[in-house]
Every structure is written in C-alpha cells, then in structure tokens.
Amino acid sequence: MRAAVLHEIGQDKLEVLDDVEATGFGPGKVRIRVRATGLCHSDLSAMSGVLPQPAPFIPGHEGAGEILEVGEGVRNVKAGDRVVVCWLPACGACPACKRGQTELCLAGFMNAGTPNFRRPGGDLFGFAGTGTFTEEVVVDAGCAVPIPDDVPFDIAALIGCGVTTGLGAALNTADVEAGSSVAVIGCGGVGISAIQGARLKGAAEIVAVDPVASRRESALKFGATKAVSPDGLADAKQQVTAGEGFDYVFEVVGKSATARTAYENTRRGGTLVVVGAGAMDDFLQLNMFELFFDEKRILPSMYGGGDVLRSYERTIALWRAGRIDLEGLITHRVPLADINEALDQMRSGTALRTCIEI
C-alpha cells in the first residue's frame, strides 16, 4: 500500500512509497482504511525534531476512514463503521482517567514507541502511535471512534485533532467568560478554532494575531473582531483594553518567545492559555516577583483540556447546528501523491488546513 515516509528526522520532504504494510493486527486492534487526513503543525514539528518521535516514521494523526476488520475482543466498532482516529485514547483505568482528566492519559503515548508499519527495508513507526498519511493503519480499538453517517470524512479528520484542540482550549481550559476580551496568537487551524470557541462563549472582543495576511483575513470571517500582525499587538492592546491587557490570551504557536509575549499582554489576574506544542529545550522565563505580583493564571491545554470523546460529540452537534464552521477551515486539498505540496502550504502559512485525500 502507499504511504508517505520520513526516513530521517530533520528532512523536510516525505517520500511516497507503495511497498508499505500496516502491521500489528490482532486482539484489541482494528484496521482502518484512511479516507481523509489533515496536516497538523505537530506533524512538521515531529519531522524537524521539535517533538520527539522515532524514525523512520509515517506522519499524520488527524484522520478519518472506515473499519476494514476488527480483532478479537473488539466491541466498540465493527467492519464498515465510519470512524475518526483518536491519537490519544483514554485507557479508563489510570489515575488520570479516574480523576476525569482523560486527556492526560499516557496509554496512547506508549503506542508511539512500537512500530506499526513495515517495508522491505525494515520497521516504520506511525506518528503518535497512528500515522495517517497512508492508505491503511492498524491501531488500538480505542483509537477508532465511531462517527455518524452525515459527517464527511474530511470534517471528521479535523475533529480528530485541530478543531478539538482549539475549541477545547476556549470552552474547557479557559472557560472564556461572556463579555471578555481575548487575543489569539497564531491563527492556523487550531488558532481559528480557538477563535470560534471564544465567540461561542460570548467574548466581546477577539483579537487575532498572525504574521500572515491571509490568515488574519480568515480570522475575521471566523469571529475575530480585529486582526493584526505581531507588530500591531501593542496598539490593539491599547485600543481594546486601554493598555491593561486582555482577559484571555491564547498562545497557539508553541514557542517560548510567543508565550512570553502572550504573558505580557495578559492583564493582571487574567489567563494565559498555552495551546502550542513546543520543544523540550525551549524554556519560558518568568521571574518570581511577576509570577506572584501579577497573579496571572497560566493554563496549558492538552488536546482541548477535556474528555476527548465528549468533545467530539459536542463539536459534531455545534457543526450540525451551524454554530461553528468546519468546512471553511479546509482551504486546500491534495492527493497523497502531492503531500509535499501540503507541507509547503503549511510552512508558508497559506493554508489553514490542507486535506489530504487518500
């Protein structure tokens, strides 16, 4: 079968091969025919080494498709079911799951260290234990979440990561207060979803911050009340908050420099939500006096900061009701053979989300 492979960490191109086999099928596993997958910035971060990932590997973790076969003991899905791929399934038994913090379950991360593909040259890993830039993937049954028939595969793929992450940051982690002021730094697919979440919660002012003009224009269509380049953030802060700072600032880039900017633009007593996934050697510096004196809440948001399955259901309900726009997030479409075109679109900032059709 075909799959897009990164041979070594640090390479910026993927090679589409046709000699790859999905492996590991057996009890508790499912085989999925991938129909659509989104390109998330985390895929690029894994390719560059910002996020830890063994190589060679197949990127992709934001996917949807249909079940081809199920292993012994699988009860949640059956052959023919339409599913979204969940890269962070909850085991239901660990301390985090028992506390209701299923997004902190580590069971899914354990899968990332086990190869689930093979080709004549040896084993391949799937990114985050999945690897959806391929025609088929074998994953734990918990990674396959059934979706209703009226949800298209491309929409379902977005729900698998970017939309859930961004919406959840506003709805779950921040629990944005109606009438508040919000700034979102980084307005790709996840940032736009955070903007939609803040709008749903009734934020009065939502300032989108991004260096790419097309993304700023898109942010206004999705609910931002103002869109500025990073150089314009100081003026926006003055205009919207009289210089005090925003009630909520979402950092959706994953770098200490933008997190520091986000902190400085959060009002005293306000909330900084860290959504971007950054590198382990990139440190955010805060002095102990400002940390104490400003009483700003710093809230990391992992995968939307809430129960993932419930978040999927909520997102589908909001989409059906016309309360959020998911179709508009897909600005580009390419076949798997042109995956490197999708990478260029992400790196240049021209795409909110590129759907890879498989």
Describe the structure.
This protein has 358 residues and is an alpha/beta fold. Helix content is 30%, strand content 26%. The chain is built from twelve helices and 19 strands. It has helices at 41-48, 95-98, 107-111, 153-159, 162-174, 189-200, 213-221, 233-241, 256-264, 288-294, 308-320, 339-348; strands spanning 3-5, 15-17, 21-22, 29-38, 57-58, 62-70, 82-85, 117-119, 122-126, 136-140, 144-146, 181-185, 205-209, 226-228, 246-251, 266-274, 297-300, 330-335, 353-357. The strands form four sheets. Strands 4, 6, 7, 10, 11, 18 and 19 form a seven-stranded mixed sheet that branches. A six-stranded parallel sheet has the order 14-13-12-15-16-17, with helices on both faces. A hairpin with a 2-residue loop joins strand 8 (117-119) and strand 9 (122-126). The longest helix is centred in the middle third of the chain and has 13 residues, at 162-174. The chain is globular. The model has no long low-confidence stretch (mean pLDDT 96).
Mean pLDDT: 96
Largest sheet, in brief, is: 7 strands, mixed
Helix content: 25-40%
Rg, rounded, reads 20 Å
The total count of strands amounts to 19
User: Structural class of the secondary elements?
Assistant: alpha/beta
What share of the residues does DSSP label as strand, in percent?
A: 25-35%
List unreliable stretches of 5+ residues.
none
Cα-to-Cα separation, first versus last residue: 11 Å
- If helices are DSSP runs of H or I spanning 4 or more residues, what is the number of helices? 12
- The best one-word shape is globular
